[in-house]
């Protein structure tokens, strides 16, 4: 399948090392808003909407994880970027892991947040059926309830509303296809092929992809480090923005990412 031209945003100095941020299932690139300003002080930050999300196209399916990886490679090519730091959360983390395993020359350093090398497929297959039957709107409250811990959600109703609106706005069929992509993911053999210095970030209270998923990734990638964020659910970058942004910068800077 041909790669699609995903919609993207560039921030930061034009001559700085590039960091690509890949969004979670159901979210748009706006989920990275808390991280972008600090990263853009010293990196060229690329945020984009995964196909079927936000302003990106939703081509005919079915799709595979490699199709999503192809979209990122095509984006890097469009931007004239040979190597980039890549960070992804959930579905974005799966995309980043596969990219690092399949195209090691393109990935300088890797950050995998709240993701899995082998998710349990049934829940995602059920969600694909529900999205096709009734659209994403009925799913939004349940999905967002996994993204933030209950206490944080109660204190930030505006954020909850914004996140639910992201899911409602997702292309129904595109969302369903991405659910099926996640259901088919099995990156366990890929982990040993990843050579990029890797940081794995886990939300300690993540009900969607709980900490054992991230522990398995960290154990499978040689030299990977693991950071647990608490309280933090499936989008710990929103609930603990300072800690997650600091971990990102610490990883990228420490391994010589900042030129």
From TrEMBL:
Superkingdom field: Bacteria
Signal peptide location: none
Keyword Transcription regulation assigned: no
Gene Ontology MF term list: 3-oxoadipate enol-lactonase activity
GO cellular component, one term: membrane
All residue ranges annotated as the AB hydrolase-1 domain in the record: 17-240
Entry keyword set: Hydrolase
GO BP term, pick one: beta-ketoadipate pathway
Keyword Isomerase on entry: no
Pfam family name, one: Abhydrolase_1
InterPro entries: AB_hydrolase_1, AB_hydrolase_fold, AB_hydrolase_sf, PcaD/CatD
NCBIfam families with a match to the protein in the record: protocat_pcaD
Name by which UniProt lists this protein: 3-oxoadipate enol-lactonase
